[in-house]
TrEMBL record:
Residues 3-37 form the SAP domain. It comes from the Eukaryota. SUPFAM superfamilies: SAP domain. Signal peptide: none annotated. Pfam families: SAP (PF02037). This is 20605_t:CDS:1. InterPro entries: SAP_dom, SAP_dom_sf. SMART domains: SAP. Residues 215-241 are annotated as: Disordered. Residues 230-241 have a biased composition (Basic and acidic residues). It comes from Dentiscutata erythropus.
Length: 241
């Protein structure tokens, strides 16, 4: 309830001001003041009978120029009138201005640029005040660069190893091929692999040239063998005259 905004002590002072009993808990005091407020609304002179100063006899200067407006919130009119009475009798409970809009607190972190600048200044101050931290940070940066270079080197070596394995496989297939065309096909596949300046594959071209030479030699031997066989057969099958 809206009247709970007043503390029990404030309610007791109101009860004393209007000559109402202060016995009981906060809810009892609120109930008595509600009843008194309704009686005041029905009979404006009822407060004078209590022996206390009535609102009708108050000077204009005592009341002041305070205007109490009720907004769209669901505010109990009895509680509102109690607050007004408390302010007029004692001048102690100032009615706060009622507003439908709640002011948003300033948030220093809503401005991204300002937050970024603040962080930069913070880290700059840390670097200036902590030279040991600067040294550790510098070493970590160096370690990060070393790890990056190592990863790049590892990837390069892995690619070169794969290429070397592929070349070896193609040359083995070329060695086992029965025809010269198959031999040259595998050698051309090995030759099509990307070149590299690494020591691992510097001998790639030499290996391929040797494979080509062996293929040519193998071809020549086959041709020679075929020619000898044909000559031998021709001698055995030479017609008699």
């Amino acid at each position: 309830m809206s009247e709970s905004n007043l503390s029990k002590g404030d309610l007791e002072e109101l009860c004393r001001a209007f000559g109402v009993s202060t016995d009981g808990v906060k809810a009892d005091l609120v109930q008595r003041l509600k009843q008194l407020s309704s009686e005041v609304g029905q009979n404006p002179n009822s407060v004078e009978e209590t022996g206390e100063t009535s609102l009708g006899n108050c000077d204009v200067d005592d009341q002041g120029d305070h205007v109490f407006e009720v907004n769209d919130f669901n505010i109990d009119p009895v509680a509102q009138s109690l607050k007004e009475l408390a302010y007029q009798m004692k001048g102690k409970f100032k009615q706060p201005p009622l507003s439908n809009k709640i002011a948003e607190p300033d948030n220093p972190y809503t401005n991204t640029e300002e937050c970024t600048n603040r962080s930069k200044r913070h880290y700059q101050e840390m670097e200036f005040d902590n030279p040991l931290g600067n040294l550790v940070l510098s070493e970590f940066k160096k370690l990060g660069n070393v790890m990056t270079n190592f990863n790049d080197r590892l990837n390069s070596v892995a690619m070169q190893y794969d290429s070397l394995c592929t070349i070896g496989t193609e040359l083995d297939l070329a060695k086992e091929s029965r025809s010269f065309s198959e031999v040259m096909t595998h050698i051309e596949k090995a030759s099509a692999l990307p070149n590299t300046q690494d020591n691992w594959l510097k001998g790639k071209d030499t290996l391929i040239e040797k494979a080509k030479a062996l293929a040519e030699e193998k071809k020549n031997k086959r041709q020679k063998t075929t020619s000898l066989t044909e000559n031998r057969e021709s001698l055995f099958h030479k017609p008699n005259y």
